[in-house]
Design brief:
Blueprint lengths: L1 H25 L1 H79 L4 E11 L3 E6 L12 E3 L4 E8 L4 E5 L6 E6 L5 E6 L5 E6 L11 E4 L11 E9 L6 E8 L8 E5 L16
Antiparallel strand pairs: 1-2, 1-12, 2-5, 3-4, 3-12, 4-5, 6-7, 6-9, 7-8, 8-11, 9-10, 10-11
Helix pairs in contact: 1-2
Length: 278
């Protein structure tokens, strides 16, 4: 401790002597030079610190501005994407509507266009609700179709809407036949949300995967020739009397949005008017 004090005292005395000497030789100029010699590095250091701090602050402000600009650009890009999707959806909906109306004009029977406003799901579509009801003179058991084929029949009519029993409902049955072989049968809905063709075993020898099944028109409920589905598999586990063929529906019940409700009868075979052909 004593050594440190002695060293400090010696340094102070030395500085004082230097200052006195400079004052004697050069007056105030020498003292100012020494002061400048001591303070200049400090000032230079402070200037560097100040420049660095200003640079950091400027960088921070630039970073904030860049972030804000990026956020704005991302928001604009997202809005453009949404607008593009909306335009695409509008174009696609217009295309579907034009197709539906063009198909409607070709049909030799009266129909009422409708829009699907609800679906009952249970692992698959159980029923559809359309925006046509008693106010449109819709009647129970009215057939419901699309340009692809048969959807089902109206089972409940309300004031401004109707409930449609779709083909995949286990309670649904439709008289049908194969286009290629004319094999008659009944299309039944199944609990798994699928459909199958039930036919007499003796009549089924010519059935092939890919065969188109259409309404037979028997009973007058559905016009003849409306596509129902295509054979996707033949089940050999039927009884001695009946055999079964699994069908793939021609209408995607989960995506259909616009329908036609058939409001008149027709004896014309409609098969050739539908998109699926034979």
């Amino acid at each position: 401790m004593k050594i440190r004090r002695l060293a400090l005292l010696t340094t102070v005395v030395f500085v004082c002597l230097v200052l006195l000497t400079l004052q004697t030789r050069g007056g105030a100029t020498g003292a100012a030079d020494v002061l400048a010699l001591v303070t200049t590095p400090v000032q230079a250091g402070l200037a560097r610190v100040n420049r660095a701090a200003f640079g950091l602050w400027s960088t921070y402000l630039d970073w904030k501005n860049v972030r804000a600009e990026n956020r704005r650009l991302r928001d604009e890009a997202e809005q453009l994407r949404i607008d593009s999707l909306r335009v695409g959806e509008t174009v696609e909906e217009n295309r579907r509507l034009r197709r539906l109306l063009g198909f409607r004009e070709r049909l030799p029977l009266a129909t009422l266009p409708g829009e699907v406003i609800g679906r009952e799901w249970g692992g698959w579509v159980r029923s559809l609700t359309v925006n046509r009801g008693r106010g449109d003179n819709v009647m129970r058991l009215t057939a419901v179709i699309s340009p692809e084929g048969l959807i089902g029949r109206v089972v409940d009519v309300r004031l401004g809407a109707s409930v449609v029993q779709v083909l995949t409902d286990p309670a649904s049955t439709v008289g049908a036949h194969l286009v290629r072989t004319r094999t008659p049968g009944i299309v039944e809905g199944e609990p798994r949300g699928t459909i199958r063709l039930k036919y007499m075993a003796r009549d089924g020898s010519g059935i092939q995967v890919g065969d188109l099944v259409v309404t037979s028109g028997v009973g007058g409920l559905f016009p003849r020739g409306i596509p129902i589905g295509r054979v996707r598999a033949i089940d050999d586990r039927g009884s001695a009397l009946f055999s079964y063929a699994a069908l793939a529906p021609v209408v995607d019940l989960g995506k259909v949005e616009h329908v036609l409700l058939v409001t008149s009868e027709s004896t014309t075979d409609l098969t050739a008017l539908f998109a699926v052909g034979g």
